[in-house]
Request: fold
Amino acid sequence: MLNTIERMIISVDEIGQRVRELGAQISADYRAGAGRDPHRRPLLVVGLLKGAMPFMADLIRAMDIPLEYDFMAVSSYRNGTSPGEVRILKDLDCAIGRRDLLIVEDIVDTGRTLHRILKGLSAREPATLRVCTLLDKPHRREVEVPVDYVGFVLPENLFVVGYGLDYAELYRNLPFIGVLKRREA
Ligand code: PRP
Reply:
């Protein structure tokens, strides 16, 4: 599997360092918010399957505040008759009214997935709704979405895999972010 990777663009150490920074920053931000309302329930961290799983597993362990976590699963139909349609396959298990929510993504590309998720969750009136993504491709955006915490901005239109990101469901288990060789991508 490894010989089909053209080059590594974000190493294990760089990911680890950035995840620790994000965890500390997010913890500090929510600690400050909770201080204003001592009765507020713990932060609910929501991972979007499948790509966010490795990032979220590391991020929550870099956070030192009380939190709960859950997952949502969505499907995209990028090449069908309704390009950009996003359907929710697995919803949250609990009510979110008046709670603090942090959505965790592996990558924000066109923004369509996040837009659909945020629209649905906003209607349930959480106290706060923020987004953390490991990777951001702002130049690819088709729908404007608010992103509060970004691990790395990808400067070019690279097709990246690893650390949760797939090509045909493979490569999600790579511990680094890499670019596939041209014949594979
Ligand atoms: C990927 C990624 C984001 C979405 C971003 O998910 O995990 O959810 O695409 O793209 P967008 O900004 O253009 O909507 P994908 O549908 O590939 O599913 P996966 O998480 O199971 O890999």
Summary: The domain at 2-32+39-180 is CATH 3.40.50.2020 (Rossmann fold). The pocket of PRP is lined by residues 48-51, 76, 105-114, 166 (CB under 6 Å). The chain has three helices and nine strands. The mean pLDDT is 91.
